[in-house]
Known about the structure:
The chain is α+β, with helices and mostly antiparallel strands. Helix content is 63%, strand content 10%.
Amino acid sequence: MTSLADRVSRTQHWLRAHPLAFDAALAVAVLACMVTGSFADPHGPHGPTFGTRTPELRSAVLMVVAAGALVFRRREPMAVLGVTGLVSVVELVVGDPAAPVAMSAVIALYTVASTTDRPTTWRVGLLTMAVLTGAAMSFGSTPWYTQENLGIFAWTGMAAAAGDAVRSRRAFVDAIRERAERAERTREEEAGRRVAEERLRIARDLHDVVAHHIALVNVQAGVAAHVMDKRPDQAKEALAHVREASRSALNELRATVGLLRQSGDPEAPTEPAPGLAVLDQLVVTFRQAGLPVEVARADDDAAPPAAVDLAAYRIIQESLTNVQKHAGPDAKAEVSVVRVGATLEVTVIDNGADLPGPSDGTGPSDGGGHGLIGMRERVIALGGTLTAGPRYGGGFRVQAILPLNARAARAGEDR
């Protein structure tokens, strides 16, 4: 059975690849049927008989012409229908009884109906039915209501209906295939977009973690090197801060890199992302590094959505890191977190030198880095706004307005 199914499948593929060969075989089969039918006499003394008459040469020529036209039915369906219809009318008019040449017109009408639109099928089908049936009824030697005449009417009608049904099914299948391909492309594009967004988000987290802790390590290491000989106790304290900052950096890097693990990996970290709940600990690390930081909060200690909470923390972390790196040794920073209606306003200002980069905050935060760019991407992803630039009278100001709405909550859930 499997071998037979394979042979049938291969035959079908070959015929689809060679439609002209299929049409030629169909023409031969139709010609054989017409020739066989021409030996039948429907008006015998005791009903239809077979082999009691022989087709005339004229009928044989018309059958060959009609069958030969079917070879080109896919290329020129209307022309083939015209030829077969004309040949059929000639046979119906002069033949007595007529050979079944109209069989070729039925096949041609089916082809036209399966390759054109429905209005054309209706017009051409009705015209073909009227012409062939009218010729049979008007010029035949039998009464107009005989079954042969009604048979021509029925077969032409069924050919038009069958062709229209096949055309509709092909259009339906093509539409389903097109929708499936479009859906597949959409899924691939959506998957690519999500992957790109996830990579960008992880890149932002890595930048924030590395920039913050490395800046602290750099400052404390500089302090330790400066006081190593004269004040070893202070140098030990600075080295302890270096060790603590390094440990924190490793822990956050482990949590961030864990996002790249496959789903269900038991080794993937489950620690919550940092947020405003640990803001005091973040501020302490900067104070230990020598940067005075004042914090003012008016957010009612209400926990914002996870995405807003993380964004606010990272914005404060990156802003203070930039102050530590660029604002000078005597700089001071002020952080405010205020809840205003349905928004959370996060502001970080300092009194040091202007940070590098354009005043609109679109440029890098540190000579080619991506600090301000990352902050802006975080805020835009939540539907908020970010302003960053030099302050009047010196210093720098970063302010982010983050919405506390359903969109932010959904973004947090997506993480």
